[in-house]
Hints:
CATH class of the largest domain: Alpha Beta
Strand content: 5-15%
CATH architecture of the largest domain: 3-Layer(aba) Sandwich
Bound molecules: pyridoxal-5'-phosphate
Strand order of the largest sheet: 1-9-8-7-6-2-3
Distance between the termini: 22 Å
CATH superfamily of the largest domain: Type I PLP-dependent aspartate aminotransferase-like (Major domain)
Number of helices: 12
Number of strands: 13
Largest sheet: 7 strands, mixed
Number of domains: 2
Helix content: 25-40%
Amino acid sequence: xxxxxxxxxxxxxxxxxxxxxxxxxxxxxxxxxxxxxxxxxxxxxxxxxxxxxxxxxxxxxxxxxxxxxxxxxxxxxxxxxxxxxxxxxxxxxxxxxxxxxxxxxxxxxxxxxxxxxxxxxxxxxxxxxxxxxxxxxxxxxxxxxxxxxxxxxxxxxxxxxxxxxxxxxxxxxxxxxxxxxxxxxxxxxxxxxxxxxxxxxxxxxxxxxxxxxxxxxxxxxxxxxxxxxxxxxxxxxxxxxxxxxxxxxxxxxxxxxxxxxxxxxxxxxxxxxxxxxxxxxxxxxxxxxxxxxxxxxxxxxxxxxxxxxxxxxxxxxxxxxxxxxxxxxxxxxxxxxxxxxxxxxxxxxxxxxxxxxxxxxxx
Length: 363
Ligand SMILES: Cc1ncc(COP(=O)(O)O)c(C=O)c1O
């Protein structure tokens, strides 16, 4: 089976992890934890970074750090990974689902602004599939209304925003995931970033039991343990060292898919390629109907090629539908009409050719 994703551990991962084990630095303290945060800050140009256990913890920590009031409304796109909605509900806030724009599968800024009211406390945008949403416009909207803006960049390491900066710079707090299917990984891990020192100092305190003073059992807040280990950070650091190669290869893979399927009835999702913003986390093939997607997925599976469906809109899921009575036309329309293809950097050219041939073979 060609998997839809697998990590490529092709740099210093083994050496760095061995160093952790040999030197006994296996908890969250240690040089790799520090180096990961400082190097990630340099790479993204976001001033302050703290590492956490995973991308979902990063979201929960962002909501806690900003002091999002319980019972307030947080605007989120319905078309996106469920961790965002779950974090909002677990925080005790109310998710308000916003539609997407079909041109780029990202949050619809008009629908977003329409849904702001006196009880809105924050917006969480998601850069879906490695393509950026209009984060600077969303940031302006958030500032105009005096609400917070969190940027979920879990799927968008290496993605540029419309100003040409690394995503994560146009918000109060941005979050990243280092799960095994992400462009760089720690197995499990996450990062919380901000250009505000105060916010990252506060997040750092909350992620570590809100300890007032090291070694003293006195705590200044209701903290979490969201720490990331030095071992996981060592893996992520080695991955970050190779990020440019990974991104280049991902771009090459997208180009091959695009060329290869251009005479088929399917289309590769790739808006505004001339702007060079996409980090091509996932290659998404768009179909004309849900039925066509289902047939294509089955056909690929029968030929040992793993794929994934597009996100089901969160407002249609049983635990979440009580938060929404509105139809979100674009999210509902696109959800069934596409699949994600194998997209990991170590995918071989021969495998890509097999995938393309199999797609083109479908009657
Ligand atoms: C947009 C988005 N946000 C958050 C997460 C959660 O990250 P993690 O799996 O590291 O908790 C993911 C996926 O993993 C994601 O795709």
